[in-house]
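Students often ask why we bother predicting the structure of a whole assembly rather than each chain alone. The short answer is interfaces. A chain on its own may look different once its partners are present, and contacts between molecules only exist in the joint model. In this exercise we take two input lines together and write out one structure for the complete complex. Read the inputs first and try to guess which parts will touch.
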Amino acid sequence: MKVAITSTGNTPESLLDSRFGRCAYFVIYDTQSKSTEYIPNPNKDSLEGAGPASIQLVASKGVEKVISGEFGAKVKSVFDRLQIQLIVIKDQEKTIKEILDLL
Amino acid sequence: MKITIASGKGGTGKTFVSTNLFFAIQQEGTPVTLIDCDAEEPNVMEFFSGIRTEQYPIIQKVPVIHDDLCTYCDKCREYCNYNAIICLPQAKHIQVLEDLCHDCGACLAACQYNAITEKEKTLGHVSVYSLSSGASVVEGRLSIGVYSPIPVIKGAMHYPHQEENTLFDAPPGISCPFIATADKADYVVLVTEPTPFGLNDLKLSVQTLDTLQKSYGVVINRSGLGDNSIYEWLEEKGIPILAEIPFDKEIARVYSEGRLIAEVNPGYRYFFSNLYQKIQNHAGNCSSQR
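Now the answer. The structure tokens for the assembled complex follow.
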């Protein structure tokens, strides 16, 4: 299964990015192969629709779960329809490595 | 002449100035229309009573994608500049996010399978009120939940039967709604207050109007409050002060009762007539310089 995590940087030591649509990086983690891919978010500075464009990005990677600090109103209903589970982590001091260890 | 009354900061007195100016211009016998362009929270009609003579909806077209004809080729999503379409070919999922659609029609041009048609969506209404004085107030009012007020603002501003002299009461801020309201104006009156917040937002408004190459002047409301920094900045920039409205308890009381100080107090009627004169003089000077 693939999981997307919003990250402030492109290393395992980077902190979780609290925003979904405008996060700095997406980490795509494959729980079977244990591989991680860091994708810079091209929608970070979009004038509008950063959330839906980011859904397009993570959903096309085939993820089944998305972990972030917060999800906007527009994206929640779309994720529901795509049957992608959303996980909210409120602790902003968590690193990507710590989150991966929980999976 | 088309005059926009605007401010960067909210609550500085745009509607106070536009309603009283509207009244004073009428008293001089000059036909004038007041258009409330603050479509997200219109309040001009709180100060007038009149009969609604016209009301029309502002409609936008949004795409409808038909799953049975769609091949999930992804082309419509690629064409969409506003991220309003999500297309996931593998999951056979295609979805329009109506709130983000700008009615540009690019997705219809992109689709080669006739899978996209359009439907109408009501964004808000334009209402026209006829006052006992004979003048009209036009109000743009956005429907609840609609993302952008721009089409409703433009719909109100283009009211076809407006007088030659029209006042546009602008929305606060300096983003698209303000730009849409300032764009069609011959002259912009910026209402501010002598506080650090007022100055900060005035600077942003001035930058925006300079970019739009608009002529403008400043009305300082609640003068006597705050500090001198706004006066120093305006002098340094050579921006004219059209009027200073004192920080007067009577103004606040009359305004809170939904009345016009220019109607209640003849001194203020003279004050706003004078302001209109200054706007005309200054706008005339600006246009002759071009």
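Check your guess against this: The radius of gyration of chain A is 12 Å.
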